[in-house]
Amino acid sequence: MQNFKNGKIPLFMYLLLVISWVCCTPAEKQEYKNWNVYGGTKDAMHYSTLTAIDTNNVNHLAIAWTYHTNDADTLLHSQIQCNPIVVDGILYGTTPKMKMFALDAATGKQQWIFDPGAKISADTSAQTRLMMAFSNTGRGVTYWTDGKNDKRLFYTAGDQLICLQAANGKPAADFGNNGRIDLHDGLDRDVKDKFITSNTPGIIYKDVLIIGSRVAEDATAAPGHIRAYDVRTGKLRWIFHTIPQPGELGYETWEGKEAWKHLGGANCWAGMSLDEAKGIVFIPTGSVSFDFYGGKRLGPDLFGNCVLALDAATGKLIWHYQTVHHDIWDRDLPTAPVLVNIIKDGKKIEALAQPSKTGFIFLLDRTTGKPVYPVEEKPVPTESGLTGEKIAATQPIPTFPKPFARQSLSEADLNNLVGDSSFQDIKKRLAGYKTGNIFNPPSKEGTVIFPGFDGGAEWGGPAYDPATGILYVNANEVPWVLKMVDVKEKAAKEENYLAAGKRLYTLNCMSCHGPERKGSGNYPSLISVNKKYNDARFLQLLRSGRGMMPAFNHLSEQEQNAVAAYILEDKIKQTQKFIHEQKADDAYMHLPYTNTGYNKFLTKEGYPAVKPPWGTLTAIDLNTGEFVWKETLGDYPELKARGIHAGTENYGGPVVTAGGLLFIAATKDNKIRAFHKRTGKLLWEADLPVSGFATPAVYHVKGKQFIVIACGGGKLKTRSGDAYVAFALPDKN
Predict the structure, then answer these.
(1) Residue 197 CA from chain centroid, whole number
(2) What mean pLDDT comes out for the span 75-95?
(3) How far is Cα 255 from Cα 259, in angstroms, rounded to an integer?
(4) Which residues contact 574 (CB under 8 A, 6 or more apart)?
(5) How many CA atoms lie within 13 A of 34 on its CB side?
(6) How do residues 340-368 score in pLDDT, each as one tens digit?
């Protein structure tokens, strides 16, 4: 244990300090027996003090109940990423089509269900439009009570923030417009034609609901300002501009003084944490859009890629810390920071731990925002072949703890589990890419992004055990390739719908679905999509968005029709003459480059091009910086049969308990697992109906402890599902 070998304090004194800290810290006085907040508690620990299930009996766990939502959409790869909450014996969660439900937490019996699109219109086509409009990926709900009879639930379906009465699932009529608020409103800019939703629940401070948002990734993105609403009325209490406006701190760092009127992003899509005693909300933000070219947003891009500490009552900035300067790699902060307590040089420090997609953990003082251990500003490659780009000269590199994921890909790291021809193929491709530095800039030849766009750490977030100071973080270790291409700025004087549709596809769709419409990353192929959609339904999809796909209301009706004709391969419509319309010119929207999609670097067989492990789970002692253990997470059945424990990409986080266990699903192999939290030994695993890309919830009701996981599948080309599965120990006869 390196920190007490320096002679500053003897080992026995160090241990006494740890014991004292654990026993006396206010945060640890919480019981952590409930799960009435997304992630368990507002400090984002994913921790439970329940001990009925422990290392001795966990192998006896069995399914206690299963609840089917009956609205999975295999056609559109629906998902459930929800971490449900449990209040007064009732479990609240969401379905693939963003309905909210209430269940008896002991039996799984449905109490009520709310459909955001029901009873608005009896017209079938209108119902279809509403279904699409309300579809997004939801990760949970938020609960508030006045401690008496007023009990409310909040969640987002599409662009609607919805408030329901917890007792019966009916809209709270006194909140907003009959229980709803349009998230397009209150952003201090006209964004009515832009995509906006909120996929991660907000957080409650007293009688204020604080929320972030998910916006588009391209130049059309809405701003990601942070907003707080009165829980009773829906009135906007405060707003924090993540892209600062004139007169606000940070505005002077932007070279383009009009940028705030045009640029979007810098949003909190990953959730937030709260120190209720201090009244501080901690908010992680993403990059400013467009993700991969910054020539229209010169400067460090405050407050993108920051941990923000705001006064929860007023929204005033207390401090900020930027983890990536002028992000051109889509390195959003992917999860809420965890409020932790650590000992450094014999002193107690209230801190926060912010995991990142790159595999770094930033340990910051909770009150001041200063790094607990040195973070070095190190020079990075700055030569870009992209006109107008100005790359940040340095990037912050934490010195403690060491990265929990690999960060560099060389020939020696390539996957050697495949045949020689496949190996030679990835070797040849790697030789043509920029590689070897996690801050190599985007390029036309292709730049290796490793860890990939999906981490390192992802939205599931880590778990933290306050009794030991150990942080548990699961990670993806899969390389991706970012390739930039020139954009044809001006249309030909005369175009038909085919030419215009292809041009508009390149500008608006190629970055997700690839140049040949074959799909990329987690985005599906559009080949033969005309077998799934007719013209009317596809146009509605363009206008409303669905799941990971934003709406494209910035396109005119004619432009939408041209895109539809191209993608649906409508040969008759493609010959139609495209009439160019006069539009108000916005220079910020005219980007000289786009990218060819979110492309994983894979072998011919479809495996990651790097040697395993491809999914990992690491236990890190935040007091010493040492890895307590690191295990491979997940399996490919065909590789497992060959004795190869490779791990898989994983989405959803772990939960750690005082019973000595760490529970996690997250992998694509349809498993939920329990590990010994001190050793990393696998103690139990069970099959799920489909992959559980979500974080488990741990709760106690009617004398029994349960673990429940949402099984929605849909990611990583897995089958979509509709189940919540709860596990418990069998009743004693």
Answers:
(1) 13
(2) 95
(3) 8
(4) 496, 497, 498, 501, 565, 566
(5) 15
(6) 999 999 999 999 999 999 999 999 999 99
